[in-house]
Amino acid sequence: MSTMIRPLALMCAFIVGWFFPQGSSFLWTIPWFVRYMIFMTFLGLNVHKMKLRRSHFAILFFNIAIGMGACELFKYLDQPTLAAAAFFTGLAPTATAAPAIASFLRREVEYVVTGMLLTTGGIAIALPALLPISVGVETGDGSFRTAFMHVALRVLSTIVAPIAVARLLRLIYSNAATWTKKYKSATFYAWVLMVTVLSCGASEFIHNPENGVKTTILLEMLALSLGICVCNFVLGYFLGEKHYRQESSQTLGQKNTGLMVYFAMLYANPLVALGPTLYVLWHNSWNALQLEWQAIKDARLAHEEKESHTK
Predict the structure, then answer these.
(1) Is 241 helix (H, G, I), strand (E, B) or coil?
(2) One digit per residue, pLDDT tens: the chain, 311 residues?
(3) Closest by alpha carbon to 124, among 60, 78, 75?
(4) Helices (H) and strands (E) in the chain, counts
(5) 280-285 — which CB contacts under 8 Å span 24+ positions?
(6) Please, which of 16, 24, 85, 254 could form a disulfide with 204 given CB 3.0 to 4.6 Å?
(7) Cβ atoms 254, 276 nearer than 8 A
(8) pTM surpassing 0.70?
(9) Contact status, residue 124 vs residue 117, Cβ threshold 8 Å
């Protein structure tokens, strides 16, 4: 039952958000939720155990390529809303929770952590240039340079600042590294609250008659996020070296959508943000299945080991 906690909590967040669009008044808290989760993740990292592999760079390349490719495809099909949603969904870096899932699956955590660091850093560097080109950023003079600087400053305050503070705190107070595990539940509840607020924002946008949102676009968002999710997990499996297939799949498939939802809300609208928000439903459902399969496998091995001792 514990493996289903995340999907169930996510469903509750969606339900609450759908019936209480008034919660959209708390959308200003989203960047602070994102900063908190990035801070807590990097606070507990042991960077000395990290080892870059060839597949890590392949993951970063396809992380960007899938987001850009899907965006250009929907642009070609004259679907600007889906194009923007595909961009933010596909470009999301590896989730901060991915290493924990890898450990539950008995896989090499260091591989996933290294991938998370590389994709987070790579996306942070690439985003200021990619966002104005792919989605467009409204600025005073409309120039690429102004748009680049605008996004760069947002990336700096949302991603780089909490990482820098976390590493500085580790240098000053070494026991701070234990806070990641100590406050793991608080981080989980922060994630649930963030998804709830995002759902409220999407609900408010959808229910507002002035926006003219149709049911078909919601179904298209569901299909889009599912398609990108399947593509990421399957492609990631084949990108990894022989002994790191599942780790590679997890690194590319499980995404830090909260970060991209924030940027989608900032530079697009809540409907576009629905793309990466719904992705959370798909990748957590897959994680739940993986964890259930692992639990069955562990139970079978334990039973076989017990029988071998009794013979």
Answers:
(1) coil
(2) 455 566 677 678 878 888 988 888 888 888 888 788 778 877 877 767 678 899 999 999 999 999 999 999 999 999 999 999 999 999 999 987 787 778 778 788 889 889 988 998 888 888 888 888 887 665 555 556 776 777 778 778 877 888 889 889 988 887 887 887 787 778 778 877 887 887 787 788 777 777 666 778 889 999 999 999 999 999 999 999 888 999 999 999 999 888 888 888 888 887 888 899 889 888 878 887 887 787 787 778 776 667 666 65
(3) 60
(4) 14, 0
(5) 280/10, 280/195, 281/7, 281/10, 281/11, 281/14, 281/225, 282/225, 282/226, 282/229, 282/230, 283/95, 283/229, 283/233, 283/253, 283/254, 283/255, 284/6, 284/7, 284/10, 285/7
(6) 24
(7) no
(8) yes
(9) no
The structure tokens listed for 202 are 């999407």
Residues 24, 203: contact at Cβ < 8 Å? Answer: yes
Q: Compute φ and ψ for 143, nearest 5 degrees.
A: -80, 155
Rounded Cα–Cα distance for residues 30 and 109 (Å): 28
For the stretch 58-88, what's the b/e string if a residue is b when 16 or more beta carbons lie within 10 angstroms of its beta carbon?
bbbebbbebbbebbeebbeeebebbbbbbbb
Give the span between the Cα atoms of 117 and 121, in whole angstroms: 6
